[in-house]
Amino acid sequence: MATFLYKIGRLAFRRRHFVALIWVALLTLAGVGAASAPPAGNTSFSIPGTEAQKAFDLLEQRFPGASADGATARVVFKAPGGEKMTDVGNKATVKKTVKELSAGSEVASVADPYAGHAVSKDGTIAYASVKYKVSGMELEDSSRTALQDAADDARKAGLTVEIGGDALNAAPETGATEVIGIAIAAVVLVITFGSLLAAGLPLLTAIIGVGIGVSTVTALASALDLGTTTSTLASMIGLAVGIDYALFIVSRYRAELAEGRSREEAAGRAVGTAGSAVVFAGLTVVIALVGLSVVNIPMLTKMGIAAAGTVFIAVLIALTMIPALLGYAGRRVKPAGEKSKLLGGARAARKPAGPNMGTRWASFVVRRPVAVLLLGVIGLGAAAVPAASLELGLPDDGSQPVSTTQRRAYDLLSEGFGPGFNGPLMVVVDAKDSAHPKAAFTEVTDEIKGLKDVVTVTPAQPNKAGDTATVTVVPNSKPSSTTTEDLVHAIRDAGDGIKAKTDAEVLVTGSTAMNIDVSQKLNDALVPYLALVVGLAFLLLIVVFRSILVPLKAALGFLLSVLAALGAVVAVFQWGWLSGLMGVEQTGPVMSMMPIFMVGVVFGLAMDYEVFLVTRMREAYVHGEKPTQAVVTGFRHGARVVTAAAVIMIAVFSGFIGSSESMIKMIGFGLAIAVFFDAFIVRMAIVPAVLALLGRRAWWLPAWLERALPNVDVEGEGLREKDADEDRELVHA
Q1: What φ, ψ does residue 79 adopt, rounded to 5°?
Q2: What is the dihedral of CA 150, 154, 160, 166, to 10 degrees?
Q3: Which of 659, 620, 657, 655 is nearest to 637 (CA)?
Q4: In Å, what is the CA distance from 82 to each residue of 90, 139, 155, 198, 408?
Q5: Is the pLDDT of residue 1 over 80?
Q6: Cα–Cα dist 673/679, whole Å
Q7: 553-578, pLDDT tens digit by residue?
């Protein structure tokens, strides 16, 4: 592979005009496609195989025209101090607001609080339920504006008015920290390369790759039912790996220049060696992202495949566009160890070169491997302890910042009607096969009334055919609590007995039940997903490193860093440690997608660092160095670049901690802390300590497996043989 990529690198360097033209044309084509594509419609959110989804599908079938997937809003009113919502003036204001809300063209129905008994027992709080004909993502801005205007008019009359539900779902604000993160990435690149031009190459190619990937996703959004979160994930991962891959190839190019090679030869060798690592690192990321399909959540599958496509583009750009741009840059990209004049290159040249920080650190580790290994493992183990208390759930309005109207509406409803009112359960009774449907409906309501944690059970509401009915159940506890989850399971258990008696099937759905089912589905899929991703990557790394123990060590180190990162997430977002510093206003269960999402994304990035760092060690070992010396050599060439890549990723991911959306804040923190643990503790400390302890055994491979494995030549052995052949030709000449 090294020889093949070497030829590609040299070809791209020589034919740089042609290569640049191709990528500009692809970017233009993707941009035109995105601009001319129809806008994305409603992104369906389905969870195949769950009871909540089955009940939802049944409602669509048996209650046609009911807009089961339509957006909802709860306009919550609170009377001024000393007054009640039943007072004449306040009642008139609410009636006027209900009339205003009913005038919208997308409004399906508005429930009057006084007709629907939606006034609290003390009379201070009331709410009007608004049902729309379309989903929240399809709702026109004019409908949202009309909803807010109606609330403002009621506020002017003296009432406290807040709006809950999904009708006002808005794009989260990330704040200035995201921009700061990108700025830090640029500064790190400048420090790493000592050149503004060399630092700009990874950023430029990463932006082009993300532009092509995201534009393609946008162009296909309507046809493939892709949501905005799909392009967000694609851009996040694409930017991360795009900078990483370009960083490693440019760094290797400068190292080759420092050895006295011509610029074209250096470009070819950089792509042949570092490019081989890029290919296999990219494959591990693609495996991790495409592997999300095993969860069988269509939205997650699409997100993973779209992000994997962006990673594939990043790999191609690194292998072709980077050497082309290096050709354009010419002598302005300096050899390793030299800086541009603007950054003090003349002064640096007069200083004698000594061991760099990577060399000194690796030498320290190989001298004291046991102490470093124990310290690293114990530290990560301590950080992972909170993960044993992990509670999973999905965010609702109760997790919103207190500054939002959704959160204030949530709190008012909890105050007036109890915490469970924000997460009612919808019980669907399918009595199509029952001889006495009405008796079955009564049996269900009576059975549920006898369960614990039930506050209210509404009478069954049958459809026109009389074979299906809905029953609304209000729990006594908040939607995200384990008590509410227990109630859902209790209703489902009771449904088994009811079916035996009446032949009627009882299904529980609603947003709360759907969240519970999603959490369970993700939890059940975590182990198979982990086995698939780690297993495939383990086989891939055996081919790359031609070793059993090195890939095993890589996988175990990754698991340790992910557990430590999950422990940190639990400590901050569930327990509330450092919550003020992180801007966490409401603690609660960890987002259900967090563990599996972290496994997929962090595994890909962790294997990047593993491949880039250890291939340098393997390369030195194959070329005759002793195992411990090979570790030091690998760090001398790779530690600075891996450190820079990790700092960049931490800076980029940390930018999302400033988001107003708790889910994005959690993802940003989780990914940033995971990269920190994996890059600086696992790859920089545990990996060299383990390799130093194992010695030559680290590179052991059974003879039969050695013969069976394909020789992909990541270390560039073919290029060494090429040099030897050229030297022999010169001698004979």
Answers
A1: -75, 150
A2: -10
A3: 620
A4: 12, 38, 17, 69, 20
A5: no
A6: 10
A7: 888 888 898 899 999 999 988 888 88
